[in-house]
Amino acid sequence: MSLGTGQSADMERIPCRLCSRGTMRWAVIKPYNLNVGIAMMVAGFLCLITGLLSLLGLILLLIGGYLVWARKAVWLCDHCGAIVERV
Ligand SMILES: [Zn+2]
User: Fold this and answer.
1) What is the pTM of this model?
2) Does position 1 have pLDDT exceeding 60, yes or no?
3) What separation in Å is there between the alpha carbon of 15 and the centre of ligand 1?
4) pLDDT tens digits, residue range 10-45?
5) What's the first-to-final CA gap in the chain, in angstroms?
6) Burial class for 59, CB neighbours closer than 10 Å (0-12, 13-18, 19+)
7) How far is C-alpha 80 from the geometric centre of its chain's CA atoms?
8) Domain ranges of the chain
9) Are 10 and 27 in contact (CB under 8 A)?
């Protein structure tokens, strides 16, 4: 068995603290509200095409894009659905 450089973090098995029956599994969730991100991107785009608030529009686009595409790795219990943030 070599330790290697693989990213197979899901090989680990961590028992759930809440229900003590399930197993915490590695999962990726979207931590932010998708609708908020899209609304900010649309608002930013509108600011950009009007040319009046181009700097604000650019900032809104960047923040909105981050909210939409951001993902977070967590531990998810396959029994009770508890989510624990990975540190
Ligand atoms: Zn659980």
Assistant:
1) 0.61
2) no
3) 8
4) 456 789 989 989 999 889 999 899 999 999 999 999
5) 26
6) middle
7) 20
8) 14-31+75-87, 33-70
9) no
